[in-house]
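Annotated sample (chain length 452).
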Amino acid sequence: MKPTLASNTPKDGKPLRILLECSNTLISGANTGIQRVARNLAREGIIVAEDLGLICEPVLIMHGRLRMANNWLSQMESDAAIKSQEKPKKHSNLEASPKPKSTFQRLFSLLNPANFRRVATRELRTLKSPRLNLISGDVLVLTDVWWLDDHLKLQQKAIRQGATTGIIVYDLLPIRHPEFFNPAFDHQFQTFLDHYIQTCQFMLTISETVALDLRSYVLERFGEETVKALHIEPFRLGSDLDLVSEKQTVSADVQAFFTQAGQPPPYLTVGTVEPRKNHKYLLDAFELVWSHCPNTRLCIVGRPGWLNEDVIQRIRRHPRLGKQLIWFSNAEDYDLKFCYEHAKALVFTSHAEGFGLPLIEGLRYHLPVFASDIPVHRETGGPYCSYVDLANPEDLARMIIDEAKTGVFPTVKPWRNDQLVDWNSSAREFLRKCRNAAELTCTQSAPPHMNP
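Output written by the structure step:
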């Protein structure tokens, strides 16, 4: 059986409607890489859609029903504004990956007034969100976490209704680098990706590196016919921190560390503390640096991730913690902006990435950037970064020690801010490519439908 391709000729003179599914971002309020992309595409997509002759609707799925999500998006921004005026929080919480809670523990947690209010607010907001019916000619794009049953069912329903469907592929890391993830997740991710490859009309990626990898994977798994039938194309990401306003107050401990009298500005690394981000390499390199330049400082910004207990314990027990080493585990955008503005340089030594937003954010704030020498960083950072050998922590340590002695960073091509893409431009390019992909695939045969 093959999915029905939608006719994208607007009916009754109405513009093409593109639905951006972003449930996880809006419900969780999280702000790591995927959520930052989904949120900004949804918000800016509403703004730029009219210029493109389109309608852009952020949507979410709750209790198996598709709902309009505009009020969730506006409430998220309102919550961020309110939060910014609260007393700045401390960043003393250093903890490893939380253990999964049992059903009883989750139910018991509702007795906590704050948790109860959170759940009640979510349900009330859901009731106030108008339901939305998929119709023939719609374009549904899963912009968020698409490896869950609800999202698969939504995509299948969209196909039955005659809609065109697509997803954003952020990376293939659970397949290419399973050692950095839970084995159960690796299998789940691949199962869902294989389904979408065979049923979606298009896939947009966040870099050309991911697009090339995805085409290669599709060829490996399903052959040349499927590669030709599936439209795969990258789009550019923005680099501006969107949850920032002039009224926000930076946390006192962030300010204190970055503006400590008589101390040099710290090096900065940004990213969830999990194995792929390679904090072990970073700490190994800085141990070498500290043996020669004991006053050099390092700031880690990122929430606790998974499979990270050894790194957490290493940071927690480090003799330089609170002096030359600090970890801010729950920084908001206004804290992060302050870090970028006052750091000496950005160090971004991931094993693998789909794009690497911190790299381009660091360049935006005119920081020298030390990045791992991997293809996607070469694509993103080009000649504007210094690249380090991941097999050799001494490579990074040497560059930092040389700067401490000479005051000079490795020579790279100067960065110009006119090279930057903001989220408005990113959303415009994204919607244009969604429209073009939907129109192109209407003239092609669809890949065979796979029953999950």
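Annotation: Confidence is low (pLDDT under 50) at residues 1-9, 87-100, 445-452.
Annotation: The chain has two domains: 11-69+129-238+423-441, 252-419.
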